[in-house]
Amino acid sequence: MRSGSAAFFDVDNTIVRGASSYHLARELHRRGMFRRRDIVFFAAHAFYYFLFGENKKHIARVRARALATIEGHSVAEMLAVAEELYEQVLTHRIFPGARDLLNDHLAQGDQVWIVTAAPREVGELVARRLNLTGVLGTVAEERDGVYTGRLVGDMMHGQHKAAAVREIAEREGLDLAECAAYGDSSHDIPMLRTVGEPCAINPDPRLRLFAADIGWPVRDFRRRRRNVRSGLRTAGQAGAVWAVATGLRALSRALLRRLVGHRQG
After folding, report:
1. Closest by Cα among 234, 206, 204, 220 to 49
2. Strand ranges across the sheet with 218-219
3. φ, ψ for residue 97 (rounded to 5)?
4. What angle do CA 214, 200, 178 make, to 5 degrees?
5. DSSP of 105-155, one letter per residue?
6. What is the pTM of this model?
7. What distance in Å separates the CA atoms of residue 58 and residue 49, rounded to the nearest whole number?
8. Taking Cα atoms as reference points, which of 90, 95, 84 lies closest to residue 126?
9. Do residues 122 and 82 touch, judged by C-beta distance below 8 A?
10. What is the sign, positive or negative, of the torsion defined by CA atoms of 29, 34, 38, 42?
11. pLDDT score recorded for residue 1
12. Which of 10, 110, 188, 204 is catalytic?
């Protein structure tokens, strides 16, 4: 058992295939908490995320849209949605390779922390179901059990992830030189640089180039098994198409009717 070691994991496209915010938006829409225009917005975000990775300005727009949407809703509602989201979607989208990696760290006696820009409620649920140590996530402000539409502190992203990891290490007495971190985005680089054992998981193009240049290990859990024909697209590309198709399925007929009506007018 390594009492002074820990592993820090991003969630989206590191543990879970795709963007958890998109799946959360779908479930909120199903419950009448999101408008149709909101689900289209988050579907477009998922498509962009699969193709290009994270973008700071893009993430900020998603954050603002999400906070405005949950304003006035109760924390209890969100927790119920998160539970259903995990059971119906997220548990089936965990990369087997990521699950093995999490279990390896747990077996060695490491603390295992989730560090995510996703809502803390989602991160806490994933951590609880996978028996992980804890969560560093984005915290939406609530008063009397109702969301205000504002954040508590900053979004858990970029440099804020690195700062949070350093705070946990100091509080828990961890030696960061003996710790590991895993992320998929170039915006995870600050967190990855805080530890002695960084690893790029399913990296976006910028992180892949950075990892190659600096000599970090890279693991890609999106690759299909060898017995699948080489002509098939990668799982990441298929996921991008799936995300958009699913997000727009409920809206396609209405949108097409509006488009046709507009052209005829």
Report:
1. 204
2. 134-138, 111-119, 6-9, 180-183, 197-201, 218-219
3. -65, -35
4. 80
5. HHHTT-EEEEEEEEEHHHHHHHHHHTT-SEEEEE-EEEETTEEEEEESS--
6. 0.72
7. 9
8. 90
9. yes
10. negative
11. 44
12. 10
Helix, strand, or coil here: 219?
Answer: strand
Q: Is 10 a catalytic residue?
A: yes
DSSP 8-state class, residue 133: S
How many angstroms separate the CA atoms of 204 and 224, rounded? 18
DSSP label at residue 251 = T
Question: Could you state, in chain order, the average pLDDT of each consecutive group of 10 residues for the chain (265 residues)?
Answer: 81 88 71 62 57 57 61 77 80 93 96 89 87 89 82 79 95 96 94 97 94 96 54 39 41 46 51
Q: CB burial class (10 A; 0-12, 13-18, 19+) of residue 70?
A: buried
Q: Is 12 annotated as catalytic?
A: yes
Token pair belonging to 116: 């995510």
Task: Residue 4: name the closest of 176, 217, 123, 197 by CA.
Answer: 176
**Which listed residue (12, 110, 184, 204) is catalytic?**
12
| Residue 212, pLDDT score | 96
